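Sync notes, pocket subgroup
Present: LS, DG
LS reminded everyone that the earlier model was apo-only. Rerun requested with fe (ii) ion included. Inputs:
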Amino acid sequence: MYAQLVKSEGSKSREEMTPEELSFQDRIDRGEKVEPKEWMPEGYRKTLIRQIGQHAHSEIVGQLPEGNWITRAPTLERKAILLAKVQDEAGHGLYLYSAAETLGVSRDELMEKLHSGNMKYSSIFNYPTLTWADMGAVGWLVDGAAIMNQVPLQRTSYGPYSRAMIRICKEESFHQRQGYDIMMKMCAGTPEQKAMAQDALNRFWYPALMMFGPSDKDSIHSAQSMAWKIKMNTNDELRQKFVDQTVPQAKYLGLTVPDENLVWNEEKGGHDFSEPDWSEFFAVIAGNGPCNAERLGARVKAWDDGAWFREGLMAHADKAAARRIAAE
Ligand SMILES: [Fe+2]
Ligand SMILES: [Fe+2]
């Protein structure tokens, strides 16, 4: 999903474009897909590497908050479902790393940038998952927000990214349903269980709204990405859609969205709602969220612990290549 941090240069006017850039823009305007070996502006390539890389990292780091509950799922069935969901996220990460690699960046480079803090992942995964109800809230709200972001990206201009999104979106709707299903069970349970569901909604509501990134008026970098069809909607448009979709779902559960200013606005045909606390968002992005150190620490440890396996694979590949050469 995670276009929230992607920056690109301001959009060029047609007069400022080179002939190559002009014909590139025309292809995009006609709805053609750009494929890996074709010419593309350097800014397009760089912005995409950042966006797809950040998206891939989010899928992988996003496994951690839910991985936290696999061993403590309340039933065998819930455990199997959660395991499958977390495995799906690993798969999403792999599709997306592969898509980024087609732009000429290596996976090792992407990993290095994640581990050194030079590339980000979605701020939402720096929040802790404190109770089982959080598994419901994460699936319902976080995967719900991800879908909101990703569905339009199926039409994005870069072929490999667009195709990855089509596969990913199919799985995301299962993720959201499993989260909502947990919430339904909790809300139909004991008063304590319902209170846990309400508490999870209280903690995840604003971080979920932050997933769409800063308000359009503070996000001056999206014009070029929109022109290139790397970004299909503005942050505020998507946030509004998310609120309008989620409020009736909360009502159905009998839960209260933690926003006193939330009200249906007949005139605009959508809800008015409070903005999240953007200072919190920027603090989390800067590395000062509740779980940043823990999340990054887990990823770096996994990378270091896997060194022997990567070396083994390389040694095997070298031997196989040597044998092939000797046989020729
Ligand atoms: Fe995903
Ligand atoms: Fe998901």
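DG: Strands lie at 263-265, 270-272.
LS: The pocket of fe (ii) ion (ligand 2) is lined by residues 89, 143, 146, 172, 175 (CB under 6 Å).
Action: DG to write up.
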